[in-house]
Every structure is written in C-alpha cells, then in structure tokens.
C-alpha cells in the first residue's frame, strides 16, 4: 500500500546552516547538484521559489523569464523530476522590507503584482498549476503601521491579479502567525479559507498547511488538515515539526512529537490525500550542527518516518477502535495508540 504518496521538498531545505546569530556552518551546494540528489533521497518532485527556477529574474524581461523557466523544465525532465509549485519570493527584495502586497507604498504593491504574474508564467512553463503564497512580510511589527481591513483587501487584490493572469492557476495560501513579522494577516487555515471567499474565483484558492506554522498558532496540525480537507482545499502540505512556541524550527517530521506526526499522516491517509495528484511536501531544515555529509538526512529521515507512521496507522484494528469509541473507552484507545507507536501493537 505504501508508495501511494509522492514526496517533494524545496532547494532551500538543503541549507548552509546560517542563522541570525552566526555564520554558515556548511558549504553552499549549487542548485544543479541539489537536483541530482532528489531521486536518491526518495523524492520525485521539486518545490520552487520563482527565483530558484529563474535566478535574477528582476533583471530579465518577461520573455527572458519564460525562456529561462522553459530551460529549467528541460533540466527537471532530465532528472526525472516534476515541479510541484512555484512561490513568489517577495521577502528578499529591498523594496519589500515592509511588506509586498500590503505595503503602504503603491509602487511596492505594483512591483509585487508584477512579480507574482511572472511567478504564474514560470509555473506554466514548469507545467504546474499551483502557486504557493507564504505571505512572509504581510503583517506588522506595530499595530498602527497598517490598517488590517485595507491589508485584507490588498491581499484579495493580489490573489485576484494572479487568478486573472491564467485561467487554470490555483493558489495555495501557506498561513503562518508570526516570523518574520510580529503579527501576520493570515495566521491560520481558517483565515486562508475565509479570504478565498472574497476573491474573484474562490474555487481556485486553497491552502498549504505547514505543521510548524499550525503549532505556532496554537493549533493541532492534523485538525487544521481535516478542516481544509472538509472544504476540499488541502492542495499541499509542508510537513515538519516544532518544539513549542519559538522561532520557526522546521525540524524533521515527527522529531518532537511522534503522535502529532502520526495524526497528520492518519488524517491524510484516511481521506485519500494524494489520490488526485497532491504531493506530500516537506519543509524541513538540517540541524545547524550537522556536518556537510549528513546535511540531507533530515529529508530522507522525514520521508521514512512518514511511511513508518503510515504503516502504523494502516495496521491498527479499526473495528477495535470503533468499539472503544462507542464505549467511550478512551484510556484503552490511548494505550493502543501509544503501544502501536512503540511498535508493540498486539491487536
Ligand atoms: C517559512 C515558510 C517557507 C515557505 C517557502 C515556500 O516559514 O515555511 O519555507 O514554505 O518559502 O513559499
Ligand atoms: Mg513552509
């Protein structure tokens, strides 16, 4: 049964290990070398930022951007890989320091719209219909800096601009409550799905749920996933783990709370996630202390843990579980799950 799921990660998941308080601890790896690693690590698809696919795209004409993206599509095919999505990287340009879509300066908003349309062109050239929107700087450090009603309207405008750019493009919003901003405007799945309703084509706006982001918002990631699944809006996931409320850690899947990871796998599997081509995306980072040689194991480990938890979930005796639920015998159910996670499932 296992193998029904197909996995992706992004080139940023193989990282130099730099953090705000120290220098890089590993050598940089070029994009092409990273691409050559995907299959060996067990991955069939690539998540792209727009400028992962077309470096220096701000210096190119739109026609040149499409041409470069076309070359990347060939490179991908040569590696036997597919593109899962393209995400406009709107948080590294000096212009977007105080936000892109929600910037107070109309020229910055115009730049953000233009760049987002380019991301749509890149997605089409890479043969994917999915745009992921991680709204990094769309929030505030102080409440008075932006008007949240106006900001919401500006987010709708930005999404509409992408929906208009291509008739079949779909947008998966990746909610996150904080970091780098103190307060983000779309912190949860509920916010993302609610804003979809204000756009020109709600059917083409869904979510990318990241485990760590849900945890930072005080939510259970599997419940967030279940909520999005009920709306038929879970178009991708960023699985990882997070140790409490601190900076976004992007730890290996299951490394903090195995049961929380198990419940994410279980809700996805129970509701046939993946059957319509949805990928299992990871957004994990190597530990800062890892030496170069071990700096990709967080990816293969996360996939391995996903598949191991899938096996645990599928081996559970559902009739027994149903009986326990009917009896409200939650102690027995609790024990059963814990023993299963310990590899001691005797049912
Ligand atoms: C950061 C996000 C980031 C996005 C990626 C794709 O917190 O998780 O990694 O997922 O840039 O847009
Ligand atoms: Mg993410």
Account of the 3D structure:
It is a single chain. The chain has 347 residues and is an alpha/beta fold. It has one domain: Divalent-metal-dependent TIM barrel enzymes (TIM Barrel), CATH 3.20.20.150. Helix content is 42%, strand content 12%. The protein contains twelve helices and ten strands. The chain has an eight-stranded parallel β-sheet. Strands 5-7 form a two-stranded antiparallel ribbon. β1, α1 and β2 form a beta-alpha-beta unit. α4 packs parallel to α5 and α8 (221-230) packs parallel to α9. The chain is globular and about 65 Å long. The protein starts with 6 loop residues before the first strand and ends in a 6-residue tail after the last helix. The model has no long low-confidence stretch (mean pLDDT 97).
